[in-house]
């Protein structure tokens, strides 16, 4: 597929109005996307677990209009929200060529998250993928091209992921589950820079219902956004080596997912998390998103793993929060460990229990 294949060429606008609704999950990367080229093309491939409980619910109502330009209103948790407007405006500008009907309708975008807004959890992946899916459902009603009609079709999902990527890179990995790869690479057949593809290679039962408990260390606004962080990979002294490492780690992870070797899984996942933050610390300007409690938690995890012969490990996204990844059979013990030893490092003792999930749902 090329970007041109996603241009809607033939559509009608007889439809006066309608409403569509999707729930789309967040995802957590195992091999991290950090660094991008123009048009949200990643510098390296990434792979993520799709989550199950952390979701954005988005309803879009559309009404036919006459004048030119984009028209939309955004509501967050029932209240009109101006803060999200610029990101959505940019998103509409980027995707207009693929969805020419965007200027024919006024859109009311009503959105809410299943996780607390102030939790510091990145909502751009779930939020942008939910909007992309809603717009695809509208396209399916207007399209005169048969390939876009069903939300189960490969084209529908691919284009939803393609659009979501143009909203926020990592959002393209939230359409499907349980593992999604984004970025062209040699290990995964049909992988693409343009959209995420479901990881269809063999996955060992060790990873069934894999758990992700998110410890909320810092719920505040980040000092440096992901978008700025990505840009700092331009001219970064270690960039090329890092991009190569991501390809290697993806190849290794593919083998580990098949064999169920949890020791090797831990090594790749924790190394990826620390490398991501090492890139931040060695860019110019340099910055640190981890907090003292992030490090306290990491050290506690290492001590627990050693003492309990556990397969618990951590990963980080672009922030201070810690994702604890572990097999389902360790759930009871790990939750006990969190309650006894880790909640004191969380802001307001707050953490969220999630697990690997199947992707977005139309409601
Ligand atoms: C560290 O997808 O949030 O979470 O494309 O600029 O919206 P933009 O960035 P974003 O970056 C996410 C980076 C990451 C790693 C990952 O999810 O792969």
TrEMBL record:
InterPro entries: GHMP_kinase_C_sf (IPR036554), Mev_decarb (IPR005935), MVD-like_N (IPR053859), Mvd1_C (IPR041431), Ribosomal_Su5_D2-typ_SF (IPR020568), Ribsml_uS5_D2-typ_fold_subgr (IPR014721)
Residue span, Mvd1 C-terminal domain: 214-344
Highest taxon above the source species: Bacteria
Keywords for the protein's UniProt record, in alphabetical order: ATP-binding, Lipid biosynthesis, Lipid metabolism, Lyase, Nucleotide-binding
SUPFAM superfamilies: GHMP Kinase, C-terminal domain, Ribosomal protein S5 domain 2-like
Sequence ranges assigned to domain Diphosphomevalonate decarboxylase-like N-terminal in this UniProt record: 25-191
Secretion signal span: none
UniProt protein name: Diphosphomevalonate/mevalonate 3,5-bisphosphate decarboxylase family protein
Taxonomy of the source species: Bacteria, Pseudomonadati, Bacteroidota, Flavobacteriia, Flavobacteriales
């Amino acid at each position: 597929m090329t970007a041109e294949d996603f241009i809607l060429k033939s559509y009608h606008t007889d439809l006066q109005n309608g409403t569509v609704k999707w729930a789309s999950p967040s995802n957590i990367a195992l091999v991290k996307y950090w660094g991008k080229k123009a048009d949200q093309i990643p510098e390296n491939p990434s792979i993520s677990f799709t989550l199950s409980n952390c979701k954005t619910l988005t309803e879009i109502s559309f009404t036919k209009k006459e004048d030119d330009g984009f028209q939309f209103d955004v509501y967050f948790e029932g209240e009109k929200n101006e803060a999200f407007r610029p990101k959505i405006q940019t998103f509409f500008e980027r995707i207009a060529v693929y969805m020419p009907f965007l200027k024919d309708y006024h859109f009311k975008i009503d959105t809410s998250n299943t996780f607390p807004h102030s939790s510091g959890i990145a909502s751009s992946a779930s939020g942008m993928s939910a909007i992309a899916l809603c717009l695809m459902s509208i396209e399916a009603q207007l399209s005169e091209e048969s390939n876009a009609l069903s939300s189960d079709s490969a084209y529908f999902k691919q284009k939803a992921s393609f659009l979501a990527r143009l909203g926020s890179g990592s959002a393209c990995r939230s359409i499907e589950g349980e593992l999604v790869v984004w970025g062209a690479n040699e290990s995964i057949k049909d992988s693409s820079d343009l959209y995420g593809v479901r990881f269809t290679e063999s996955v060992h039962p060790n990873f069934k219902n894999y758990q992700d408990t998110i410890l909320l260390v810092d719920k505040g606004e980040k000092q440096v956004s992901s978008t700025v962080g990505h840009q700092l990979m331009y001219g970064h002294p270690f960039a090329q080596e890092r991009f190569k490492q991501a390809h290697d780690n993806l190849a290794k992870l593919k083998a580990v997912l098949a064999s169920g070797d949890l020791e090797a899984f831990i090594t790749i996942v924790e190394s990826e998390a620390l490398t991501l933050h090492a890139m931040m610390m060695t860019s110019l300007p340099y910055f640190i998103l981890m907090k003292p409690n992030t490090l306290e938690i990491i050290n506690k995890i290492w001590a627990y793993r050693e003492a309990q012969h556990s397969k618990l490990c951590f990963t980080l996204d672009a922030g201070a929060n810690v994702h604890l990844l572990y097999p389902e059979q360790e759930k009871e013990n790990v939750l006990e460990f969190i309650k006894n030893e880790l909640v004191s490092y969380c802001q307001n003792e707050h953490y969220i229990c999630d697990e690997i999930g199947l992707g977005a749902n139309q409601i």
